[in-house]
Amino acid sequence: MRRMLNAWGHDIHFQVRQGFYLAYLLITVMYCLLLSLVPSGARADVSVLVVFSDPSALGFFFIGGIVLLEKGQNIYDNLFVTPLQVGEYMAAKTLSLAMLSTLSAAAVHLSAFGWEGFSLLFLAGILLTSAFFTLIGLGLAVRCGTLNGFFLASPFHPLTIWEVLYGLAVLVVGIGLAYLWAKRSFINHIVLKIGGRGQ
């Protein structure tokens, strides 16, 4: 746990240094300004699209850039001779990017609606969705080095408690499966090829 937390702190420092937070601050401000121009009758629908298509998928795009950068700098050649485990590395990356996504989504929602509809359930949905897409992005990035865009759409009708529980359960199961797939991809395409044994 301590190694993962240290890696998580390092990832946040790296993201700040590389301008991720500044870039997403500007993007978030842009979204907030655009939402303020949307007629109030359509604002809820547009807000859902913005929150669940961009901030929640942020990890998918950023993890691809991070992995490609780290591969290009040969960071992996030395990283896994340290006590840091692949699972800890992945958890730190996923948590740091999911946190950035959640902060951005929260800012967009609060700017458009204030505290109305803002809840732990809303934050959990963003966090879990971002974690899922980050893991999918990581698995693709280590396999082929290129990323395709994915966008999420959310239903526009009130959800029953069973739909909420079902949605959360699907995300949790999806995260588990994506984690296992991404970890296997990372081991096969990075860890086992360290030292010039493959591209």
Quick description:
This protein has helices spanning 2-17, 20-37, 40-53, 58-72, 76-79, 86-113, 120-144, 161-189.
Features:
0% strand; globular; transmembrane helix; FLQE3_permease; transmembrane; ABC transporter permease; membrane
**How many DSSP H or I helices?**
8
Order of helices and strands: HHHHHHHH
Instruction: Tell me the total number of β-strands.
Output: 0
Mean pLDDT: 77
Largest sheet: none
* Silhouette: globular
Protein name: ABC transporter permease
Organism: Paenibacillus residui
Keywords: Membrane, Transmembrane, Transmembrane helix
Pfam families: FLQE3_permease (PF24686)
Overview of the molecule:
The protein has 199 residues and is an all-alpha fold. It has one domain (2-193). The protein contains eight helices and no strands. It has helices spanning 2-17, 20-37, 40-53, 58-72, 76-79, 86-113, 120-144, 161-189. α4 (58-72) packs parallel to α7 (120-144) and α7 (120-144) packs parallel to α8. The longest helix is centred in the C-terminal third of the chain and has 29 residues, at 161-189. It comes from Paenibacillus residui. Keywords: Membrane, Transmembrane, Transmembrane helix.
